[in-house]
Amino acid sequence: MELFNRDNLPDMYAKTLWMNPDNEYVFNQNIVEYDMQSASLSISRRFKLMPKDVIDKWERMPKDQRTKLVGLKQKDDKEFSQNIIGGILRTRKEFIETNNIKPEEIVTLHSDALMFIQKHDIVDKIHGVPFVKKNNWTSYIRYGRVEMFYNDGVVDYKGIPKQMLQQHTLGMCTYILKVFQLIEDGDTEEAFAYISKFQKQYLQGKLPEYFYNSFGKTGKYVSENLKLCAFIANIMLRELR
Questions:
Q1: Which of 39, 82, 89, 116 is most buried, by CB atoms within 10 Å?
Q2: CA angle 131–84–98, rounded 5-degree value
Q3: Among 210, 228, 219, 200, which Cα is nearest to 141's?
Q4: Predicted model pTM
Q5: Residue 144, SS3 per DSSP
């Protein structure tokens, strides 16, 4: 039994990971994240992928134990695994349609998680599958596969390993945080003065050493970080001109 036929559907419905190419950055909006609660368990229950007594047993387990057990089941049983994926995509699509979320309002979709610009109240249960509001942000920038979500002085990163991110805590992360704040404030003069001074000091090698760690991937640190600086400068030009 095929739970979800992806043929001839737009990528936002057919792919488990979809980053909206038209929303590479978003500022001063109500960006929310809704996650499908206990997705594998909820989908198994909705579509009766396992006997009820087995699903009930899974539900009583501690989360870590249940996650491990269901993960092993998906690894060993390819049909079960495909049905979980199909059930998640089908339910995610129904969440989008039920809540009349327009394509241009979607920021990014991560399997059972949806990040979108919320314009109205949300129906948070789809055919018995609960969705939980997990995060709230006001701005977003995507650089390659790295996603940056900002709210109230804090940037949340997705798509970059935590270990790699740690080496940027005092360096490029402080620059990115300042950029978010400047764009949200809308002070054009201060914003361009800041990035101009930063890039000049960067090129002259006057910044602390930790600013020169390659951001997001390995490579020649100077050229890679200059690409990021140029990318951010272009965003500022579009948003603040």
A1: 116
A2: 40
A3: 228
A4: 0.92
A5: coil
Whether the Cβ atoms of residue 220 and residue 214 lie closer than 8 Å to each other? yes
Q: Which helix (H) or strand (E) segment is 74 a member of?
A: helix 63-76
CA distance 113 to 100: 17
User: Could you read off the pLDDT of 5-51 as tens digits, one per residue?
Assistant: 888 999 999 999 999 999 999 999 999 999 999 999 999 999 999 99
Residues 6+ apart with CB under 8 A from 2: 86
Q: Which amino acid is at 175?
A: Y
**CA 102 to CA 12: how far, in whole Å?**
11
Q: Is residue 165 within 8 Å of 174, Cβ to Cβ? A: no
Does residue 226 contact residue 219 with C-beta atoms inside 8 Å? no
3-state DSSP assignment of residue 117: strand
